[in-house]
Amino acid sequence: ENFLFRGSIRENIIAGRPGLTLDDVVRAARLAGAEEFIERMPNGYETYIEEGSPNLSGGQRQRLAIARALITDPRLLILDEATSALDPESEALVNANLLRIARGRTMVIVSHRLSSLTECDQTLVLDKGKVMDVAPHRVLVERCSVYRQLWAQQNRHMEPQAPRHAALAPTLAQGD
User: Fold this and answer.
1) 3-state secondary structure of 131
2) Number of domains into which the chain is organized
3) S-S: 132 plus which of 86, 119, 125, 172, CB 3.0-4.6 Å?
């Protein structure tokens, strides 16, 4: 669950680094895929949200939490099921921005949605706590049966895809 507190959207994003400019907030929101829905809010970045943010969807809360993490400009960014509450369109937007988000930092992504891992440099596949393989997506699809089965299960409706880029730091994927 992503914790948001009572205050403006801007205040929720800058919680980790007070004193930042609105441009900094907008840049972080854009990378997190939150800019569009924020700008549709009645008062944009100054829209007031309640503690627990019942006036936002789970995906909107998740994107604000990602923006808050990004605005601190961490050298190590851990995203744990960061796209789990996102609709497919929002997930695609966040995934499209992952290369920009990763620039200049190490990222660890924990995800059951393998589509969010296809462009990572390395993916660590776990099955019942045991390391099954470590390799880029395209290699795992060929040689790791656990990963291949999960990939096929999650992508039954799609043709197999090659990753567009392979420029992210190590990630984690967990098999069931």
Assistant:
1) strand
2) 2
3) 125
